[in-house]
Amino acid sequence: RVGGGMLLFVVFTSVIAAVLMSLTVTSGSSSLNLSTVMLYIINAIASLVGEFIVAAIIMAMCKTNINQAVIIKSVSIGDTVKYTLAAMGFVYVFNLLLSFMNINLSMFGFQNKTSDYGSTSGTVENIIYFIAIAVVPPIIEEFLFRGAILCSLRKHGDALAIVVSAVMFGFAHSNFIQTPVTFLTGLVLAYLTVKTNSLIPAIIIHFVNNGSAVAFDLLSQLNLDSMVYSIIDFSLALVFVLSGLICTAMLIKKFGNKLFEFDSTPEDNPNGLTIAKRLRYVFTSPWMIIYTVVVLLLCIQSAALA
Questions:
Q1: Residue 213: what are its φ and ψ, rounded to 5°?
Q2: Closest residue by Cα to residue 92 from 241, 264, 279, 283
Q3: I want to staple 118 with a disulfide (CB 3.0 to 4.6 A). Which of 36, 64, 136, 236 is the partner?
Q4: How many CB atoms lie within 10 A of CB 200?
Q5: Which residues of 155-194 are buried (b: 16+ CB within 10 A; e: fewer)?
Q6: Is 31 helix (H, G, I), strand (E, B) or coil?
């Protein structure tokens, strides 16, 4: 069911990408070129609508109601802050890994390609750009992957739900470089959601991650000295990584091995199948195989166009 729902996700995103590309094509005297800000608005609206529909379909097929998917009951504030900062540290390390891979593998034709509709200018356009990239995706993507998918699968066991939702999050980016890194990020965000029993921490991390990228992009328009960028980048890395390490150490000291114990146990596993066998069942199901092949083809296409 999740595999079938994610195939619909591919259809929606492909149609959206095709429409946006057609709107920016200029041929001879016929120009369909839209302004940069309009493209960001269209993309944000399309993402909201498309991903919400896919999430609703997956929830309907898995018989998950909205209260199960949109969980906001967190654990104690102190533990939630520790989990969030620890997760943010891991996510920032994964971003550094993504940058390293992008630099070193680009020579082989592999590249982390993101939507670039041009630069914005002026306060209003920059605000729209920020909302379209740093506000909309964290909300709707967390609702789809950590809400609809993760929470629909938790009845089959938290460990299974975390791994499958992370794979779906990685696959959704359809890029040889970005997919493995976003899979790792998906593991952290899914674990964080399960441990805090809330979508809010994952949304916050997603927002900080995307927001910092937008902020650096806007700073680049100021033509500041490269040393300034290096200082800002190093400072952020130091803050996120060190706070993440400290909070991780505090959680390990408090919970020990219980950090990897989950409350949810499989409701439909009477034979006591191992997590490995249940994951094998998931990823050898027909719809999931088809979805995996489609993602692989999209990755190859992305690499070929790089």
A1: -65, -40
A2: 241
A3: 36
A4: 17
A5: bbbbbbbbbbbbbbbbbbbbbbbbbbbbbbbbbbbbbbbb
A6: strand
Torsion 8-14-18-20 (CA) sign:
positive
List pLDDT tens digits, range 189-204.
Answer: 999 999 998 999 999 9
Give the model confidence (pLDDT) of 230-255 as tens digits: 888 888 889 999 999 999 999 999 99
Query: In 10 A of CB 261, how many CB atoms?
Result: 10
The secondary structure element, H or E, covering residue 154 is none
CA distance 20 to 33: 10
Which amino acid appears at position 143 of this protein? F
Write out the two tokens for 76: 């104690």
Question: Which whole-number Å values give the CA distances from 8 to 135, 137, 143, 150, 176, in the listed order?
Answer: 23, 18, 16, 17, 21
How far is residue 110's CA from residue 122's CA, in Å, rounded to a whole number? 34
